């Protein structure tokens, strides 16, 4: 096929509100390096990393919940997931599904025509387990909010599935994040896992992946979304923020809390953990500043694990689960790429249950 010299793209021009995005129809099409491949994007999912990086929420200068809007104070030295500045202009978008259409001089031409999923975590393949040498697609390099993108083929996998590109684009960020959390917490069939924020992409993934491990799962979400969440297979569904969480659990013994919410409910989440329980976290959308009674932490023999950069095998594991039909997509809505601002507004407002995807 003929590769156009120019393409359509949604370009982030700086930290700020949704108007920091600029729609371009004349952006240079990326040229693959010697070992890279060029991908025609079929669909790209939205995730919190894109929102938080745009707004600068990762900066320690910001103490409030994720709003998706511009913040009055953002320290330019730590506004991204890795605590380092980002280069603008930047094309965001980590959850890419597409087709290889060209390869660099030293890349395998047999890759052309294959449908692939990109791993959001971009590795230094001379030291792939080194977290300090890991970047994120659409943050440290241009991503998939465009018609074309490029990648090192070691950072992608060919996928064999009957699912659509849009359905496949719901998996990468949400499910690898969830699998990384459950892996770090050592979840197995002896556990009962409490999942706050179960209506979001990571929350729904946590339900499915914890059930896959044989665990009992208790989901927490707004009651209007309980019918959608029930399709994910939790054993129990609770309101989003019970006034008395321990009473709402009704004698359920929670051994693991898998949290991306934080905020005002956080002390109750910790308080309901059984002795020797584990708390695993990969987000704080309701607020990063929480209060901890250290006596609860040490007297109850609790273990806390943070989870961001995951081992390389986790992405491959998730693709295998997809191909085996062991997990299902949570596609809430699709928007044209040109309507990324509207799509992110819906994402931020939690208008839908599950994941939102944009399509070039």
TrEMBL record:
State the gene name recorded for this protein.
Answer: ccr
Concerning Pfam families, the annotation shows: ADH_N (PF08240), ADH_zinc_N (PF00107)
List, alphabetically, the SUPFAM superfamilies matched. Answer: GroES-like, NAD(P)-binding Rossmann-fold domains
Task: List keywords of the entry alphabetically.
Answer: NADP, Oxidoreductase
Instruction: Give its E.C. classification number.
Output: 1.3.1.86
Protein name per Swiss-Prot or TrEMBL: Crotonyl-CoA reductase
| GO MF annotation: an example | NADPH binding
* Matching CDD domains: MDR9
**What is the species listed in this Swiss-Prot or TrEMBL entry?**
Roseovarius litorisediminis
Checking PANTHER family in the record gives:
QUINONE OXIDOREDUCTASE PIG3, QUINONE OXIDOREDUCTASE PIG3-RELATED
Spell out the SMART domains in the cross-references: PKS_ER
Q: What PROSITE patterns does the entry give?
A: QOR_ZETA_CRYSTAL
Where do the Enoyl reductase (ER) domain residues begin and end?
A: 16-358
């Amino acid at each position: 096929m003929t590769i156009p010299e120019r393409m359509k793209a949604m370009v982030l021009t700086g930290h700020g509100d949704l108007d920091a995005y600029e729609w371009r129809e004349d952006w240079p099409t990326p040229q693959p390096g010697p070992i890279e491949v060029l991908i025609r994007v079929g669909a790209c999912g939205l995730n919190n990393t894109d929102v938080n990086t745009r707004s600068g929420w990762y900066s320690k200068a910001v103490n409030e919940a994720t709003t998706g809007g511009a913040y009055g104070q953002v320290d330019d030295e730590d506004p991204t997931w890795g605590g380092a500045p980002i280069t603008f202009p930047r094309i965001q978008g980590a959850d890419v599904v597409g087709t290889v259409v060209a390869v660099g001089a030293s890349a395998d031409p047999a890759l052309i025509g294959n449908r692939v999923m990109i791993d959001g975590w971009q590795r230094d393949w001379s030291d792939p387990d080194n977290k300090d040498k890991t970047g994120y697609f659409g943050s440290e390099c241009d991503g998939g909010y465009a018609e074309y993108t490029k990648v090192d083929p070691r950072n992608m996998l060919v996928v064999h599935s009957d699912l659509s590109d849009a359905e496949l684009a719901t998996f990468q960020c949400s499910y690898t994040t969830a699998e990384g959390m459950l892996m770090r917490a050592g979840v197995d069939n002896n556990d009962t896992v409490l999942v706050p924020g179960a209506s979001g992409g990571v929350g729904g993934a946590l339900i499915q992946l914890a059930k896959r491990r044989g665990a009992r799962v208790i989901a927490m979400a707004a009651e209007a979304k309980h019918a959608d969440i029930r399709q994910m297979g939790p054993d129990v569904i609770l309101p989003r923020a019970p006034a008395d969480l321990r009473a709402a659990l009704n004698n359920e013994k929670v051994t693991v809390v898998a949290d991306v919410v934080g905020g005002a409910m956080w002390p109750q989440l910790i308080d309901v953990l059984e002795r020797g329980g584990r708390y695993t976290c990969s987000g704080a959308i309701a607020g990063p500043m929480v209060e901890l009674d250290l006596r609860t932490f040490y007297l109850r023999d609790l273990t806390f694990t943070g989870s961001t950069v995951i081992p390389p095998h986790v992405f491959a594991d998730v693709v295998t689960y997809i191909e085996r039909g062991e997990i299902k997509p949570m596609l809430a809505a699709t928007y044209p790429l040109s309507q990324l601002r509207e799509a992110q507004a819906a994402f931020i407002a939690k208008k839908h249950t599950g994941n939102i995807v944009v399509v070039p």
